[in-house]
Amino acid sequence: MSAIRFTTKLKSALGVSLLLACLTVMGGSFRTDTAHQTGTVAATQSLPGVVALALDAASSPVVFSHAIVARDALGFPVGVRRSGKHVQDKLQNLEYDEVDELDASWRPISMTQIDGSGHLRVAVRLDESPRPATRIARDPALGIAQRGAISAGLTVAGTAQVDADGATDGWTVRWSRTQNGIDVRGDETRVQVRPDGHIQSLARVEHELASEPTQRIKADRAKEIVARQSDSWFAATGSGYTIEKMDVQWVGPNGAFDATKPIDPQPVYRLAWVANVKPSGDASKYLWMVTLYVDAGDGSILGGDFVE
Q1: Residue 76 pLDDT more than 50?
Q2: What is the chain's Cα-based Rg?
Q3: What is the dihedral angle through the alpha carbons of 227, 229, 235, 241, rounded to the nearest 10 degrees?
């Protein structure tokens, strides 16, 4: 089993993005300095692998305009002043503009992040969420989330997944992303609705997609490739396996099974056959599931994932 490089790095890209966005605003690395233009605040930040340049409304009016539109579309509170910065995050291979609404004590009460195309990627309100005696119902919460996302300039299509949020007593609404009817693995738009019916946060994960292959290998050929790779892992140890599911998805190539490649997904996603392989025998004692990505064009292994 040495061919498989184990890792505990089984994190949601969306959850990481939203968490880091919140920490950027609330963490101790955040500092504000009074600016002398248009009543804004110049913000600086010092995190490993992150470079931030201060922005103000006079020099970057489009950025601030987009942020204000998103703020109002989501019903976020209006601050006494606002700060801005352009962020280059080398750790996550991200670049975006951030605008924060500040109260009279210079504390952030909401934040929006805008990507290079002018689209909203993350927005969070930071004021305390009330807990009314009666929580808003599921369908009204879905309507609020959908109207907010559309008003903020995002496209949400298909059937939404709506889940009760036990931590906040509100609702989480998700729309998975598809391209030409094919799921983009992990990409989604997520809106959290407070129990009083106000939007708490919005986050969008959307990766660049490579061109589709001119010819796609058939399912039988992809299954042969998965079986050959699985044989090399399990047969020598006397373990077995079952290929439980295979379908075509857009995926982020990674080095989960190749120590010469980075473990983190590459930024440009490719079309692949995705197979879930269920080990049996001794291997099942420490591996619950292996997911394998097979390039839909040339049949090469693009990586995958595993759950211990």
Answers
A1: yes
A2: 22
A3: -50
Q: What is the pLDDT of residue 43?
A: 47
Structural domain spans, the chain: 13-207, 219-307
Angle made by CA atoms 182, 186, 189, in degrees to the nearest 5: 90
Percentage with pLDDT > 90 across the chain: 65
Q: Which tens digit of pLDDT belongs to each residue from 44-71?
A: 555 678 898 999 999 999 999 999 999 9
CA angle 206, 145, 164 (to 5 degrees): 100
Burial class (CB in 10 A: 0-12, 13-18, 19+), 273: buried
Q: H/E element holding 72?
A: helix 61-74
Degrees, nearest 5: CA angle 97-101-106: 120
Q: Is there a contact between 175 and 156 (Cβ–Cβ < 8 Å)? A: yes
Enclosing H/E stretch for 18: helix 13-26
Closest CA to 269 of 245, 299, 295: 295
What residues contact residue 105 under an 8 Å CB cut-off, 6+ apart? none
Which of 134, 136, 135, 138 is closest to 160 using CA atoms? 138
pLDDT digits (tens, 9 = 90+) for 168-224: 899 999 999 999 999 999 999 999 999 999 999 999 999 999 999 999 999 999 999
- d(Cα 115, Cα 252) in Å, to the nearest integer? 20
pTM of the model: 0.78
Q: Give 112's contacts (C-beta < 8 A, 6+ positions apart).
A: 66, 67, 70, 71, 76, 98, 99, 120, 122, 123
Which residue is associated with the tokens 């340049």?
A: 53
